[in-house]
Amino acid sequence: MATPEEMVQTMIDNLWSKTGKSLPDWLKITKICGLKKHGQIVGMLKSEHGVTHGFANLIAAKTLETGAEIDLTDAQYTGPKTGLRSLHDALVAYAKSLGADVEIAPKKTSVSLRRKKQFALITPTTKTRIDLGLALKGQPATERLLTGNAMCSHKVRLESDADFDDEVQAWMKLAYGRAG
After folding, report:
1. Which among 16, 50, 70 is the end of a domain?
2. Region 132-158: what's the mean pLDDT?
3. How far apart are CA 89 and CA 163, in angstroms?
4. Do the strands 129-134 and 154-158 form a parallel or antiparallel pair, or are they unpaired?
5. 49-58, long-range: CB < 8 A, 24+ apart
6. Helix and strand tally (H, E) in the chain?
7. Domains in the chain: how many in total?
8. What's the domain range around 66?
9. Number of Cα atoms under 13 Å in the Cβ half of residue 92
10. Residue 116 binned pLDDT confidence (cut-offs 50, 70, 90)
11. Strand 129-134 versus strand 146-147 pairing type
12. pTM value?
């Protein structure tokens, strides 16, 4: 008969095939939700994610066992959005190259790039696309530079590292300059 430790390891090994996510993926989700009690975490996993009771119990126990804080940016690029992480990293690296005053501020679903005020917003919108919001009020929209919303006047849809070309970099640099 298997030991309790071996049974737990078997459940961890089966998480991906049974739930579509690995234990680290689930831990990121449970850390972000902010729940602190075992029963609350189990209930959230079952009701919001359809996880069966046994797996929800395991994930909740592991959540409370690991005291490490979750990186909000890492959480945005789990599962099907994993492939977008290199594009995100290229956007952040370029923003940092614009000046030492660039502040990177991760949120639950996006990353804000600020100077004295926000000049860009990186949002992994779908599993294949990042929307780069830019504060370029007054700039005419183009086929690529689309009209945005109140947070960012414009946005550019990026699906690969190649989409982050000289034109997009110039728009980001312009937005950075206006935020000073």
Report:
1. 70
2. 94
3. 14
4. antiparallel
5. 49/19, 51/19, 52/18, 54/11, 55/11, 55/15, 55/18, 55/19, 58/8, 58/11, 58/12, 58/15
6. 7, 6
7. 2
8. 4-70
9. 16
10. confident
11. unpaired
12. 0.63
Task: Decide: 69 and 31 in contact? Cβ < 8 Å.
Answer: yes
Cα 38 to Cα 34, 112, 164: the distances in Å are 12, 32, 43
How confident is the model over 52-75, as pLDDT tens digits? 999 999 998 888 875 544 567 888
Answer yes or no: do 129 and 48 share one domain: no
Residues 119 and 53 in one domain: no
d(CA 130, CA 122): 7
pLDDT at 146: 96
The answer on 85 and 56 residing in a single domain is: no
Instruction: Choose the final residue of a domain: 35, 70, 105.
Output: 70
Q: 96 and 152 in one domain?
A: yes
Inter-residue contact 123 to 89 (CB < 8 Å):
no
Whole-angstrom distance, CA of residue 114 vs CA of residue 175: 10
Q: What is the C-alpha R_g of the chain?
A: 20
Both 96 and 26 in one domain: the answer is no
- Please tell me whether residue 23 adopts helix, strand or coil conformation: helix
142, 112: one domain: yes
Say whether both 17 and 91 belong to one domain.
no
Hey, how many other C-beta atoms are within 10 angstroms of the C-beta on 32? 14
- Tell me, yes or no, whether 99 and 171 share the same domain: yes
